Amino acid sequence: MDSTVKKQMLALSPLRQIDEANVQIAREPHASPPFRVRVHLVTPGPDISAEARDHTFAAALGKVIKRVTEEIRNRAAKRQARRRSGAQRLLPQHQAANHGSNVSFA
């Protein structure tokens, strides 16, 4: 299990810098589904957390990795959208300053 978790965490590193990964694996025999995996990633900026349950360890781990990957991609998309919207807000002011007004001289 350790090597499987480590491999999955290392596979996330190209998407986001991970300073620390805390992974909790629990098998609760009286619960359904019995396997629970929690992940808390310490990253620059907000940390990322996810939890998943399933009937096998592999399935629960796969679900939690998918959720973490989606969260990383969503945050990256939001960051890019903020950068684009900030550039677009500055662009009309910049264009007006450089092009002057539409005044004709006779």
UniProtKB/TrEMBL annotation:
Source domain of life is Bacteria
| UniProt-listed InterPro entries | RHF-like, RHF/RaiA
Segments of this protein annotated with the region Disordered: 75-106
Which segments show compositional bias classed as Polar residues?
A: 95-106
Compositionally biased intervals (Basic residues):
75-86
Q: Which Pfam families match?
A: Ribosomal_S30AE
Name the record gives this protein: Sigma 54 modulation protein/ribosomal protein S30EA
Q: Which organism is it from?
A: Chthoniobacter flavus Ellin428
Q: What is the lineage of its organism?
A: Bacteria, Pseudomonadati, Verrucomicrobiota, Spartobacteria, Chthoniobacterales
